[in-house]
Amino acid sequence: MPKVNTTAKQRQAADRRAKKCTIQPSDIFTMTDAFFSPSYGDSEGWVFMAANYNGMAYVNALFPGAPIKWDNSSEGMPDGWSTADINVPGIIMAAAIEHTLPMDITKGMPLENITADGLAFLLVTGVNRQGGRAGFMNLENDVKIFVPNAGNN
Question: CB atoms < 10 A from the CB of 82, how many?
Answer without folding.
Answer: 19
